């Protein structure tokens, strides 16, 4: 019997263990069975369990990973690179230990509030998570996973509206916190998105997580022309320019970034998943890679500004 038909063994597993057959996973995620098998066999991105007769069964964690894979693919990250991104996320979850359960409960409560379009409920959850977690965890482990899942699951009725509701809420709260933190710092950094490679919320969250007591970060708007960044830096005179991208720069874009770095009066750095994926290709160039994790980016930025981190 093939995987598309009904099978009592699969149905029993679904009921007893919360495991889903491939046909159900395909329906839930929009990814066809052929692609799911290729992601498993060729790239090792998903490792479903197997019944005695060889049928694949997927857990909810597998489904969440599939949705994250879709999100990174939509951002232009190649499927061969997605594995390293997922691995880092899983490693951080293991390090967090007992906190993971709390994060999952908060995520579920956020999803329920979003489904009800409950602004007061989201406000309460936002304050609750901030009071109980450090800044990096608030976004990386609680709010952004929900935001990512909704972003790639907009095929169903109402899902686009739910994502827009959460996106608007988070942009407003993050922007408000950036305004509260907008006081004189000993060092200033500009954060510029590379065209079409990130959402405004991701840029705002990165601005918030990169900042510290002595480093102020100002995000530039989406659509900022790359060729005019030298002019912006000349007038604002930042201590550093951080470029943000989820995609590793192409050979042509790398040449443009190197030319930009040569005319800037301040150092230039790359942050986001693009930085994680481009470390080898940018080695020896004038562009330093900060990485994609909040605490790591913040530490590397401080080290670079102190002259303790080479490009």
What does this structure look like?
This protein is of the alpha/beta class and 311 residues long. It folds into three domains: 8-88, Multidrug-efflux Transporter Regulator, Chain: A, Domain 2 (Orthogonal Bundle); 97-178, Methyltransferase, Methionine Synthase (B12-binding Domains), Chain A, domain 1; 183-305, 3-Layer(aba) Sandwich (Rossmann fold), CATH 3.40.50.280. It has helices spanning 8-17, 22-29, 33-41, 60-74, 79-96, 99-115, 119-132, 135-152, 159-180, 200-210, 229-236, 251-263, 273-277, 279-282, 294-305; strands spanning 20-21, 49-50, 56-58, 187-193, 215-219, 240-244, 268-271, 287-291. β6, α12 and β7 (268-271) form a beta-alpha-beta unit. α6 (99-115) packs across α8, α8 (135-152) runs antiparallel to α9 (159-180) and α9 (159-180) packs parallel to α10 (200-210). The chain is globular and about 65 Å long. Residues 1-16 have low confidence and may be disordered.
Radius of gyration: 21 Å
- The level 1 CATH classification of the largest domain is Alpha Beta
Return the domain count.
3
- Globally, the shape reads globular
Output the CATH homologous superfamily of the largest domain. Answer: Cobalamin-binding domain
**How can the largest sheet be summarized?**
5 strands, parallel
- CATH third-tier fold name of the largest domain: Rossmann fold
Give the assembly state of these chains: single chain
Order of helices and strands: HEHHEEHHHHHHEHEHEHEHHEH
Instruction: Report the strand count.
Output: 8
In CATH, the architecture of the largest domain is 3-Layer(aba) Sandwich
Tell me the strand percentage band. Answer: 5-15%
């Amino acid at each position: 019997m093939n995987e598309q038909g009904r099978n009592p063994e699969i149905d029993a597993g679904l009921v007893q263990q919360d495991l889903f057959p491939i046909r159900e996973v395909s329906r839930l995620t929009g990814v066809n069975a052929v692609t799911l098998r290729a992601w498993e066999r060729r790239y090792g991105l998903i490792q479903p369990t197997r019944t005695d007769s060889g049928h694949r069964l997927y857990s909810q964690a597998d489904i969440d990973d599939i949705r994250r894979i879709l999100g990174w693919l939509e951002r232009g990250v190649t499927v061969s690179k997605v594995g390293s991104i997922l691995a880092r996320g899983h490693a951080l979850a293991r390090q967090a230990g007992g906190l993971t359960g709390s994060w999952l409960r908060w995520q579920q409560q956020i999803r329920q509030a979003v489904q009800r379009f409950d602004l007061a409920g989201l406000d309460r959850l936002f304050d609750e998570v901030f009071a109980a977690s450090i800044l990096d965890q608030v976004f990386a482990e609680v709010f952004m996973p929900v935001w990512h899942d909704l972003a790639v699951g907009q095929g169903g009725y109402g899902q686009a509206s739910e994502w827009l509701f959460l996106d608007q809420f988070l942009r407003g709260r993050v922007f408000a916190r950036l305004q509260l933190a907008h006081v004189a710092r000993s060092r200033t950094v500009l954060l510029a998105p590379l065209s079409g490679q990130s959402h405004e919320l991701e840029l705002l969250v990165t601005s918030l997580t990169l900042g510290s007591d002595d480093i102020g970060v100002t995000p530039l708007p989406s659509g900022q022309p790359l060729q005019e960044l030298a002019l912006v830096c000349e007038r604002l005179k930042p201590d550093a320019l951080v470029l943000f991208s989820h995609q590793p720069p192409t050979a042509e874009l790398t040449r443009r970034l190197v030319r930009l770095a040569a005319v800037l009066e301040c150092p230039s750095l790359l942050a986001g998943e693009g930085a994680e994926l481009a470390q080898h290709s940018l080695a020896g160039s004038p562009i330093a890679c900060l990485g994609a994790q909040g605490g790591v980016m913040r530490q590397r930025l401080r080290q670079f500004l102190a002259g303790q981190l080479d490009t």
